[in-house]
Amino acid sequence: MTQKVLIFVAIAGIVTAFAANRPERRPGNLTPIQLISALGVWALTLANASAMAIAIRDGSLFLFCTVALTLATALILFVHDDVTEISDRQMPGPVKVVIDDVRQLLGEAPRLGMDILDAVVVTGNCPGIGVSVPQQGRVVVRLRWDVVQWLERHQQAGGAGASVVASFARFTVLHELAHVLNGDHRTFRFVRSVLIAHLFWCAALLAACSRSVIDREASATPLVVATSIVVMFGAQSLVARRFISERERLADWRAMQTLDPADAARLLERGGRRRATTNPTELEKLMIDLKAQAPADGSRGPFTRLMLFVWPEGDAVHRRAEMAADRAAGEPQAVRWAALMGMQSGLLSMSLMQAAMCASAPWIGWGRVVPEPVIMAVALWISGPAVTFCASWVDPGRMSVRAPQRRGLRTLVGTVFFCTFATSVVVLRLFHIHLEAAVLPPLHFALLLLLAAAVVILCTWMTGVLGSRDGGGELRHAPRSPWVQMYPVLAGLVLVLVPLSIAVTYWLAIGSFRSGHWFALSSLSFSAFTVSTAMARSTSAALRVIAPMALLDTPSPVYGFRIFWRDFYVDLSRVSLARAAAMSMAFQVVGIPFFVLILGLIVQQSRAVLSAEASYNVMFFGSFAAMMLIVIIPDRYGAFGDPSLRLADANRIKLFEKLLAAIHVVNPRTAERLKNVLSQWLRNDRLVHVLLPDARSLWMLEPLLILVRLARATGETALLPRWRDPIERSLRQVVSNAAVAVAAGQPPSLHWTALAVTIIDEMGLHQTFPFERMLDRIETLLGERLTHGMDNLVADIVLATRLLRRCGRTGPEAQSIHRFARSASIVSRPLLRQSLAELCELAELTGDEEFRVKLRPIVRSRAWEVLQLNPRKDVLLLLDCCLALARLGEPEPHEGAAALVVDELANRMAGELTMVVNR
Amino acid sequence: MTGEKAIIAAILGELIPELKYAAPRLLERFDRGDALIHATPPKDVGFEGGAVDSVLLECFKALVPYVQMVLGWGVIGAFNIWQASKRDSRHHAELVALLTAQLDQSVKMQQGVAGLSRTVSRMDKEPFSTMQVVESIAAALERVGRPEDSRSRM
After folding, report:
1. What is the ipTM metric for this complex?
2. Nearest alpha carbon to residue A190 among B45, B115, B83, B35
3. What is the pLDDT of residues A647-697, one digit of tens each?
4. Residue A28 — left, alpha, or beta (φ > 0 → left; ψ -120 to 50 → alpha)?
5. Shortest distance, CA A124 to any CA of chain B (angstroms)
6. What is the mean pLDDT of chain A?
7. Is the CB of B44 less than 8 angstroms away from the CB of A127?
8. pLDDT reported for residue A776
9. Which of A188, A450, A588, B6 could serve as A492's disulfide partner, Cβ 3.0–4.6 Å?
10. What Cα–Cα distance (Å) separates residue A370 from each residue in A47, A53, A354, A448, A828?
């Protein structure tokens, strides 16, 4: 009994302490290398928990002491802070200036997850310039007192000079903020403390080896346990070596791309006597001096040398300084990340299962198998998110037009992930076999690998479908489409699908909770639901008729649902978000039970001829087979087959338009280059045909309008007469009663109508449509929209106002537009992902100077924010800021940094587009 | 730091541009017999992570005796003459000419300069002539002699 309690308390205690002490403090985007290190260290911690259980079982004082010493040391190192006190010494001027600047840019909003930014002078044996996050949202930059003196010395004669010191201070503060944004503050101490503490296991291995040589009768268990942990520790040390240099490189890169070009130029200025080889930059000289500033106390003991082996200094200063100069660095290394992530996920999965088996061993017996749900949970909850994370970093990390889908790379990422996952679990299993304590039998082990493979395939595919287009951070979408599109689906899966599948499994006597039939039924129902949605969106009329329930293909702001062959639509510009979310949830509540009940009944009938296991297999593998049907269902994206046409997807064509507009402001020479290559691309005769809207794809109106505008912007006006007939025919299908309805039989939509009328206007089709009547409708709809519509969507209002003004109409009263614009959500909630360029245009159209003044700090803050995040991924947000800055016409301190990124993006895109067009 | 030490640090900083700002502190440690820079495992998230190239530090140690040698055998004298005449002419070329003249007269100085040339060539992996050494010494002396230059950059 004592043994049972001890083992349970030991494992539960370690797991709870580790979960509770996880430094989960925002802000922070966990970059891959941080997550990779953290996964490995969690695996090591769980392996210690298992070792503790084995020590209690075998009464091995040797193992018990090693685990206790390791964990105690890790805990002490983790909680110990080297800062002895906060000094009352005044912060040096250059640091004060940069902190004030950043505070101003934060604009009292929790941008990037930072509520408060402070800087303090500290004493102690801590880093010279460091950062801490004492509580959620509070970031403190810490300067050691001697670094204050160092900064002051460099401002005086013989030093680097005041302006260089100011630039250096700016760079270092941004570097520290970058550490926080990369998630270093979460993982650094955790990984370091656990790894250094594991040096005890190296000593334990030596002792166990010696003991086994001296006493051949001694138990081999301590040796096997120590070897397995030291092997994991070795792998983690190698990962950590990479992690240490990578985190500095990433922080340098993030800081450098946010830094004003003038500051960067000062730091990257090279000087010295060398003529043939390159001289060092000012940054390198200052970094070496700062390094020399730290006291070089005493001689290095063997323990410090050992610690350096586990936790080295990181990249050479020279390498860091040279790499910092490359603003375009930080390219996602998807395959390498996938390999490391796969290895770490494998180690964590096996360690978790071993810990679970050890914890339950006193009750179910040592060496007994963990229940299947545990295996399934491990396969699902570790491999799934990990591979999704890897694959989602592949696609939009860098905008590329050469391979728009990146399917090949995603497949490679999934394959590499699974291979390293399988290798690490096989290696750990070999150790576990020798422990005679917790080992998965071959059948269960094969099930784990099979499930992991299935999860990897599914998640890799889902990543391609869903994608991830934003650059991270705290920005929320406006209109809040996830509340209508994604959250109800997720809530439906968790709150309806799983409980209902369990209930139906018992009710229809298909199986039990332990038999896992509920899981197979859930998978099958989800697959059926997905296939039904794909059929309802298909270009085949027959398939559309068959689908009973579906989420229709209607992007923002209109969302469509099919319930028992009837289509319902929600226009987010007309109804409240709560109502739209409730309707979406109601759809899930009706749709999911429909599939679960029907499939449950079918399975119940099949049980007459199939055994329990066979029916489980049919359901489980049938769900994958059903999912594969999506590949053969025809959809309108099939027309985008050729690489050149694939570039015409809604997001990318919007990107081309904004990039061309922004690069005109930034660099006219690059603009000319991009314009020329876009002209060539537009000459593809099939291009206009894939973008023609019909009643089921009204959202194509927007890319079509952009295409027409691109033709004008690139001087390809000769194309417009050729496009006129197909566009006219297409618009005739969607325009009825001088407006475009949300969908057939639905009320007219301001958004769709304004788009259609703008196309008619730009194509010169006034005579073929009741143009004036359509303008009247728009005026009426705009008036209604300003009175009753929601305030976090302005695109339709800007479009309609611009159109009316161009056609010589004043539209609704200017005051009502002013009121609406000022109540726009982004003004009161600065963290919304809303277009600022549109708001600036609205202010300009209505001559609202007061609103323009109000927008200026918001735009400046957003531009800084987007540069701090991932501007090469969140390109549309960056371009929107650039265009907003241009509209406001203000000299903007960060404009230079943003301009450099825009120029780089435009150049690369022009190059890649040339390759696609000339193929 | 005494004037002579400041000149030695400036010459070392000129010969190893990476150590331009760190040279005075490293020289103090060298004189005390301490390690120049200790590699330490980083304790927390901070800015000054990164290793300093050991080749630079070894080269620094190797250069110090040679710099002291050339300083004792003519450089200080040339510097003082140049400082005294600075109201009339403060050209770099004049200082180089003074140093070259001293170099021609003093065998010890020639040995020191040759040692500096050899060591720096080894570090750079490309030839560094005695004339370039003289030029570098002149540049360092100029920097020490004109502290207002660095002030003007503020």
Report:
1. 0.92
2. B45
3. 887 878 888 999 999 998 888 899 999 999 999 999 988 888 888 988 878
4. left
5. 12
6. 83
7. yes
8. 92
9. A588
10. 16, 16, 9, 12, 52
Judged by CB atoms closer than 8 Å, whether chains meet at A130 and B153 is answered as no
Q: Strand A739-740 vs strand A735-736: parallel, antiparallel, or unpaired?
A: antiparallel
Q: Are B154 and A162 an interchain contact pair (Cβ–Cβ within 8 Å)?
A: yes
Q: What pLDDT digit, counting tens, does each position of A163-182 carry?
A: 999 999 999 999 998 888 88
Scan residues 23-42 of B and list those with Cβ closer than 8 Å to A.
25-26, 29, 34-42
Q: Do A296 and B38 touch (CB under 8 A)?
A: yes
The single-letter code of the amino acid at A904 is E
* Alpha-carbon span A319 to A435, nearest angstrom: 45
- Phi (first) and psi of residue A473, to 5 degrees: 85, -160
User: Could you identify the residue written with the tokens 């998965």?
Assistant: A440
Cβ-defined contact of A285 to B45 (cutoff 8 Å): no
Position of tokens 């030093």? A159
Comparing CA positions, the residue from A270, A256, A258 lying closest to residue A326 is: A256
More reliable by pLDDT, A469 or B20: B20
Number of H helices and number of E strands within chain A? Answer: 39, 11
Pairing label, strands A138-144, A116-124: parallel
Decide if B141 touches A, using CB distance below 8 A. no
Question: Running DSSP on this structure, what letter comes out for residue A741?
Answer: B
Average pLDDT estimate for A132-149:
88
Query: Out of B14, B52, B154, whose CB is closest to A291?
Result: B52
Query: 10 Å Cβ neighbour count for A717?
Result: 9
H helices of A633-649, in order, are 643-646
Q: Which of residues 106-145 of A touch B (CB under 8 A)?
A: 125-132
Q: Which two tokens stand for residue A401?
A: 């037009």
Q: Which helix (H) or strand (E) holds A30?
A: none
Alpha-carbon distance of B83 to B106, in angstroms, equals 21
Which chain A residues are Cβ-neighbours of B148 within 8 angstroms? 157
Q: Is the dihedral of CA A711, A712, A715, A719 positive or negative?
A: positive
Name chain B contacts of A304, Cβ cutoff 8 Å.
40-41
Reduce the DSSP state of residue A275 to 3 states and report it.
coil
- Contacts of residue B21 in chain A, CB cutoff 8 Å? 154, 159-160, 285-286, 288-289
Distance, CA of B143 to CA of A185 (rounded, Å): 42
Which of left, alpha, beta for B125 (phi over 0: left; psi -120 to 50: alpha)? left
A–B interface: beta-carbon pairs under 8 A: 173
User: What is the spatial distance between Cα B154 and Cα B5, in angstroms, rounded to a whole number?
Assistant: 25
The distance of B152 to chain A (nearest Cα, Å) reads 8
Q: Which residue of B has its CA nearest to A183?
A: B45
Read off the pLDDT of residues A411-441 as tens digits, 9 standing for 90 and up.
888 899 999 999 998 888 887 777 665 667 7
Nearest to B17 among A155, A163, A273 (CB): A273
Residue among A244, A291, A296 whose CB faces B48 most closely: A291
* Shortest CA gap A132–chain B (Å): 8
Distance in Å, alpha carbon of A128 to nearest chain B alpha carbon: 7
Q: What is the pLDDT of residue A670?
A: 92
CA nearest B46: which of A632, A125, A301, A567?
A: A125
For an interface test with B, the pick among A81, A95, A291, A299 (most B C-beta atoms closer than 10 Å) comes out as A291
User: In this complex, is the C-beta atom of A278 within 8 Å of any C-beta atom belonging to chain B?
Assistant: no
Residues in contact with A620: Cβ distance below 8 Å, sequence separation at least 6, in sequence order: A519, A520, A523, A524
How far is Cα A10 from Cα A50, in angstroms, rounded to an integer? Answer: 9
Q: Is the dihedral of CA A301, A302, A303, A307 positive or negative?
A: positive
Predicted TM-score (pTM) of the model is: 0.80
